[in-house]
């Protein structure tokens, strides 16, 4: 069993160690001493639990950095349970944290027993909520559509809505976006779930074979047809017929398919007998069918018949936030399969994943992670393992003035923190006059730690 991940963000080394020792048996612990490090770890590990000290450098005496970290983490994953720890007696910060979505708060000094209990309760709640989401989505064992982006929420909603009627469905979307998974999900969420799901790829075999494959044939209908044979449509009786790559279907078969959709009956090749079949048709395409109708490659009447209910599978680059979710899911799956202990991705790897455009969508991501897990030598996947180091290229150079400004600001903040807000010491540490230091403070609006 994997231990649940717990990220502890606190600038007090003693507390970090104390918590680590007290909790490491139960949790997989990650430690961070400031907001930036905390966010990096958060992004990489997506822990269900975080304890967050509100007073963090460079302003350890107020709650600005802590509250900022809180909202940034919740923005990345609103499901995380964040326990806020506040050092000062000021209750209003803690209350504000709760208002912003923190799970609970503690006052220092921390009672370890108390925090243990609260963490356990938070984790239970996290699992419960996850289970509820799962049930609400009613995913099928094996269907496993991963995604929490708005685009995917909409998709799930559509699937739930359309699953239980018998209209044909057209699923369109770029290659590798999960159209086949969606087709399965539609079937499994419908009242046809117990009946067969029969899939056929319309581009896979030549048209003359395709016809008997789909519609079946009667004995002696053509050379080699020694016995009568049912087609795929008949096998889907009571269930769902999935026509993948429908855009590749030949024009003759388009006519036959349209007739089947209109009349719910079919004749096998070489036969006159008509069979009544109740099969729900779900079709998928990565081509622009509308455009194919204009060029005459696809029948317009069939297009309209099929697209009464249409579902679009969004490209990966439009699924805000799903990239990392999918990455972690694939990473877990493949490292388990490969029996490798890979803990996550390096910062550069995550950066490279995020700037890449993913023309091959989820399939490409899946393949890249699979390969990277095989190649990885360390505990973290690198941009090189992912073969993304080159595509993304070096990061664009910042404007020199921006870089100078940033450095100036960071150094001034750091100096102030180190010297507890004492301007004379901070200025002399940086080798500048007090006046020059004051100028920097007011230029950047830096707050002095009180
Ligand atoms: N949301 C998702 N969560 C988990 N896995 C996914 C998701 N979407 C796609 N996949 C995986 O990505 C791969 C490609 O998905 P799928 O075959 O359904 O794509 P497709 O849209 O049918 O692509 P094509 O048009 O090339 O046939 C599969 O291995 C699938 O399991
Ligand atoms: Mg497909």
General description of the model:
The protein is an alpha/beta fold and 450 residues long. The protein folds into 4 domains: 5-135, Response regulator (Rossmann fold, 3-Layer(aba) Sandwich); 150-314, P-loop containing nucleotide triphosphate hydrolases (Rossmann fold); 318-392, Helicase, Ruva Protein, domain 3, CATH 1.10.8.60; 400-444. It has helices at 13-23, 35-45, 64-76, 91-100, 112-137, 150-163, 179-188, 207-215, 232-235, 251-263, 289-295, 300-306, 322-337, 347-355, 361-375, 389-392, 400-418, 423-429, 434-444; strands spanning 5-9, 28-32, 49-53, 81-86, 104-107, 169-172, 197-201, 216-217, 229-230, 240-244, 265-267, 274-276, 280-285, 309-312, 344-345, 380-381. The strands form 5 sheets. The protein has a 5-stranded parallel β-sheet, sandwiched between helices. Strands 7-10-13-6-14 form a 5-stranded parallel β-sheet. It has a two-stranded antiparallel ribbon with strand order 8-9. Helix 6 crosses helix 7. The protein is elongated and about 100 Å long. The relative contact order is 0.08.
Count of separate structural domains: 4
Task: Give me the secondary-structure category.
Answer: alpha/beta
Biggest β-sheet strands, sense, barrel:
5 strands, parallel
CATH-defined fold name of the largest domain: Rossmann fold
CATH C-level class of the largest domain is: Alpha Beta
What compounds sit in this structure? adenosine-5'-triphosphate, magnesium ion
Tally of helical runs: 19
Can you tell me the overall shape?
A: elongated
Strands, count:
16
Please report which band the strand proportion falls in: under 5%, 5-15%, 15-25%, 25-35%, 35-45% or over 45%: 5-15%
Find the CATH superfamily of the largest domain: P-loop containing nucleotide triphosphate hydrolases
Measured between the Cα atoms of the first and last residue, the distance is 46 Å
């Amino acid at each position: 069993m994997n231990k649940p991940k717990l990220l502890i963000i606190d600038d007090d080394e003693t507390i970090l160690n104390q918590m680590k020792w007290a909790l490491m048996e139960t949790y997989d612990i990650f430690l961070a001493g400031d907001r930036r490090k905390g966010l990096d770890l958060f992004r990489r590990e997506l822990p269900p639990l975080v304890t967050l000290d509100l007073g963090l450098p460079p302003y350890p005496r107020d709650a600005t950095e802590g509250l900022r970290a809180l909202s940034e983490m919740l923005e990345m994953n609103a499901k995380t349970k964040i326990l806020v720890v506040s050092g000062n007696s000021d209750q209003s910060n803690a209350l504000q944290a709760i208002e912003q979505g923190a799970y609970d708060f503690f006052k220092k000094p921390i009672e370890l027993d108390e925090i243990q209990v609260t963490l356990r309760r938070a984790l239970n709640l996290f699992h419960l909520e996850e289970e509820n989401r799962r049930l609400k989505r009613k995913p099928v064992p094996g269907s496993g559509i991963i995604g929490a982006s708005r685009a995917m929420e909409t998709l799930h909603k559509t699937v739930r809505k359309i699953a239980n009627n018998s209209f044909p469905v057209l699923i369109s979307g770029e290659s590798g976006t999960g159209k086949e998974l969606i087709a399965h999900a539609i079937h499994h969420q419908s009242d046809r779930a117990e009946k067969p799901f029969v899939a056929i790829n319309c581009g896979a075999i030549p048209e003359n074979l395709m016809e008997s494959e789909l519609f079946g044939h009667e004995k002696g209908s053509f050379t080699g047809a020694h016995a009568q044979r049912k087609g795929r449509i008949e096998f889907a009786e009571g269930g769902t017929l999935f026509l993948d790559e429908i855009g590749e279907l030949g024009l003759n078969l388009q006519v036959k398919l349209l007739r089947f959709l209109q009349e719910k009956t079919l004749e096998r090749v070489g036969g006159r007998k008509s069979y009544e079949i109740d099969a729900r048709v779900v079709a998928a395409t990565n081509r622009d069918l509308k455009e194919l109708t204009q060029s005459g490659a696809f029948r317009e009447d069939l297009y309209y018949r099929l697209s009464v209910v249409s579902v679009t599978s969004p490209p990966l680059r439009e699924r805000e936030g799903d990239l990392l979710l999918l990455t972690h899911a694939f990473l877990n799956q493949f490292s388990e399969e490969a029996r490798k202990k890979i803990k996550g991705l390096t910062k550069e790897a995550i950066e490279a994943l995020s700037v890449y455009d993913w023309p091959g969508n989820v399939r490409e991501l899946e393949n890249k992670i699979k390969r990277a897990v095989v190649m990885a030598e360390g505990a973290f996947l690198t941009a090189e393992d992912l073969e993304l180091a080159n595509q993304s290229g070096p990061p664009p150079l910042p404007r020199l003035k921006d870089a100078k400004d940033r450095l100036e600001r960071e150094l001034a903040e750091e100096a102030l923190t180190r010297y507890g807000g004492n301007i004379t010491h901070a200025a002399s540490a940086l080798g500048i006059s007090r006046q020059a230091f004051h100028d920097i403070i007011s230029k950047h609006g830096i707050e002095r730690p009180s």
